[in-house]
Amino acid sequence: MAPRQAKVQAERLIQSKSKSEPHILSVFLDIYNEYRQSTPLKLKLIDAYIVYIFVTGVIQFIYCCLVGTFPFNAFLSGFISTVASFVLAVCLRMHSNPQNKGVFPDYMPEWAFGNFIFAHIVLHLAVFNFMG
């Protein structure tokens, strides 16, 4: 009789743990729903650009690993451009986020966008110069 009671107690313990711990899918769904409801459209567009730049960098890295880096300057300039564009986009998102008004009190989002465009122009001039 004691082994049966131990088995029942173990089943109850497992059921109580499964009820108290949220499933990983529900955690991701909660995060996604909160993101959809509370994030402004402007930040969602910047996030889409960040994801695009990240995927481009991953594709370039996979290509480098599988095929090689024969025109090394071209690969290096493309990868540097991708990483720098990612960093610039993250900076733009940080400065454009309305929740960061306390961190950047005198910094307007329009000014951040102007700096983003200027930095991209300088970056791509350097990249084109490096490609040869």
Automatic annotation (TrEMBL):
Keywords: Endoplasmic reticulum, Membrane, Transmembrane, Transmembrane helix
Pfam family, one: DAD
Subcellular location: Endoplasmic reticulum membrane
Membrane topology category: Multi-pass membrane protein
Pathway where this protein functions: Protein modification; protein glycosylation
Keyword RNA-binding on entry: no
Keyword Repressor among record annotations: no
PANTHER family named among the record's database cross-references: DOLICHYL-DIPHOSPHOOLIGOSACCHARIDE--PROTEIN GLYCOSYLTRANSFERASE SUBUNIT DAD1
Role summary: Subunit of the oligosaccharyl transferase (OST) complex that catalyzes the initial transfer of a defined glycan (Glc(3)Man(9)GlcNAc(2) in eukaryotes) from the lipid carrier dolichol-pyrophosphate to an asparagine residue within an Asn-X-Ser/Thr consensus motif in nascent polypeptide chains, the first step in protein N-glycosylation. N-glycosylation occurs cotranslationally and the complex associates with the Sec61 complex at the channel-forming translocon complex that mediates protein translocation across the endoplasmic reticulum (ER). All subunits are required for a maximal enzyme activity.
Complex and partners: Component of the oligosaccharyltransferase (OST) complex.
Protein name from the UniProt record: Dolichyl-diphosphooligosaccharide--protein glycosyltransferase subunit DAD1
Organism per entry: Mesocestoides corti (Flatworm)
